[in-house]
């Protein structure tokens, strides 16, 4: 009995192991922050050719590799090579919170019969933007990987009561999933232990020709919005809701970006390009089309769907250059941003959709970036 058992065991040990299935999500170290926190980089590979790299620093979309009409792969997001650059500069690809975009009235707003005052860097500061001094884009999130045909990574951040001046202990969760149909799905949730405000989005900078390939002026954009929120020169909404009809902000049919970003229309000219909140048609809370953009040269198409009520369209109106991935120099209008969101300064605007969340009314929003290709001749202009 013992001799036979030893023979069987010996045969089992000498037999070649069955090949392991390749994982659709992998993890790699990506350095440490200046505070000594370990940071990881997750690579999610989809069946349709989309590969996403996500970091738990700032919940950043570091890379989106997308095939063109000829199968050539390019990274369609701007960013940096190293963690240190994300820690030092910019918001490329990061999740912004607790409140994306602007809060006016010198960073104050009413909430449940009280006036909340967010910290200011100077007494004359008119606006607090992108979460102020405690932005989620500069935090290390906890991460959990989930392998499968649609790989995902769940990122979680605990924001204590009073963080950045906002009341309530808040836990934010972002789940990034690469789907079978070549989309990156972003599921954002936030729960709180007392009434507070929250408005979270991702601030990815897209160039469908590939990062560092030049400006995006020849890309064609369609925004499914009949209305927008006019803003002043600081980008702060006036409180009005205006129709796009008869204005250069009518993107209900595709427009070439280069034909509109230098418009003399005040809502464009005062920001030296597009930087405006568009009100997405349909019912907030339901997943519906927000934006469709195409690159005639590569054939790449990106559709943005969201449950959010609005989308901030920003044409990267910078006046200097930024050293980006691979030593590339990013200049003016080399990207376009679609920040799906509630409207800026909603806590101070009773006529805007509310951004208040409570223990019984948490935040839950979904945004999907779906990629495909168009066939056809390359446009020369």
Give an overview of the whole structure:
By secondary structure, the chain is mainly beta. Helix content is 6%, strand content 37%. It is built from three helices and 30 strands. The strands form eight sheets. A nine-stranded antiparallel sheet has the order 11-12-13-14-30-24-23-18-21, with no helix packed on it. It starts with a helix and ends in an 8-residue tail after the last strand. The relative contact order is 0.16. Mean pLDDT is 93; it is low at 1-20 and 377-381.
List the helices and strands and how they pair.
Blueprint: H1 2-14, E1 25-32, E2 38-45, E3 51-55, E4 61-67, E5 73-75, H2 83-88, E6 95-96, E7 102-103, E8 108-111, E9 114-117, E10 128-129, E11 142-146, E12 152-159, E13 170-178, E14 183-192, E15 196-197, E16 201-202, E17 205-206, E18 220-223, E19 227-229, E20 242-243, E21 255-256, H3 266-269, E22 275-279, E23 288-294, E24 300-306, E25 310-314, E26 322-323, E27 329-330, E28 336-341, E29 356-357, E30 363-373
Antiparallel strand pairs: 1-2, 2-3, 3-4, 4-5, 6-16, 7-10, 8-9, 11-12, 12-13, 13-14, 14-30, 15-29, 17-28, 18-21, 18-23, 19-20, 19-22, 22-25, 23-24, 24-30, 25-28, 26-27
The major sheet is characterized as:
9 strands, antiparallel
Which descriptor suits the 3D outline?
A: globular
Question: What's the number of helices?
Answer: 3
The first-to-last residue Cα distance is 83 Å
Based on CA atoms alone, the radius of gyration comes out at: 23 Å
Mean pLDDT: 93
Strand order of the largest sheet: 11-12-13-14-30-24-23-18-21
Q: Please state the oligomeric state of the protein chains shown.
A: single chain
Residue share in β-strands:
35-45%
Query: In terms of per-residue confidence, which ranges show pLDDT below 50 for 5 or more consecutive residues?
Result: 1-20, 377-381
Considering DSSP H and I runs of 4 or more, what fraction of the residues is helical? under 10%
Structural class comes to: mainly beta
DSSP strand tally: 30
């Amino acid at each position: 009995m013992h001799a036979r058992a030893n023979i069987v065991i010996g045969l089992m040990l000498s037999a070649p192991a069955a090949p392991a299935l390749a994982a659709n999500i992998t993890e790699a170290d990506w350095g440490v922050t200046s505070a000594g926190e370990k940071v990881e980089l997750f690579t999610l590979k989809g069946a349709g050719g989309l590969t996403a790299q996500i970091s738990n620093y700032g919940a950043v979309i570091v890379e989106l590799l997308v095939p063109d009409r000829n199968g050539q792969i390019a990274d369609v997001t701007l960013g940096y090579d190293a963690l240190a650059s994300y820690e030092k500069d910019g918001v490329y690809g990061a999740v912004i919170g607790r409140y994306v975009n602007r809060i006016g009235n010198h960073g104050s707003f009413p909430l449940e019969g009280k006036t909340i005052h967010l910290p200011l860097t100077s007494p004359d500061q008119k606006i607090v933007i992108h979460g102020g001094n405690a932005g989620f884009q500069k935090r290390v999130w906890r991460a959990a990987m989930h392998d499968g045909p649609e790989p995902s990574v769940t990122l979680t951040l605990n924001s204590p009561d009073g963080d950045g001046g906002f009341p309530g202990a808040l836990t934010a969760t972002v789940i990034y999933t690469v789907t079978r149909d070549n989309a990156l799905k972003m599921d954002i949730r936030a729960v709180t232990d007392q009434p507070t405000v929250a408005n979270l989005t991702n601030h990815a900078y897209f160039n469908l020709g590939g990062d560092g390939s030049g400006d995006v002026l020849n890309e064609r954009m369609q925004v499914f919005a009949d209305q927008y929120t006019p803003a002043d020169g600081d980008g702060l909404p006036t409180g009005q809701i205006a129709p796009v009809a008869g204005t250069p902000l009518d993107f209900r049919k595709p427009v070439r970006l280069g034909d509109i970003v230098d418009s003399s229309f005040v809502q464009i000219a005062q920001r030296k390009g597009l930087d405006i909140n568009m009100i997405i048609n349909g019912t907030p809370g339901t997943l519906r089309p927000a934006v469709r953009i195409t690159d005639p040269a590569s054939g790449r198409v990106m559709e943005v769907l969201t449950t959010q009520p609005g989308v901030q369209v920003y044409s990267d109106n910078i006046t200097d250059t930024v050293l980006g991935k691979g030593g590339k120099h990013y200049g003016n209008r080399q990207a376009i941003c679609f920040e799906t969101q509630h409207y800026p300064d909603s806590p101070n605007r009773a006529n805007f959709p509310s951004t208040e969340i409570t223990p019984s009314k948490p935040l839950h929003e979904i945004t999907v970036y779906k990629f495909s290709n168009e066939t056809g001749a390359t446009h020369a202009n």
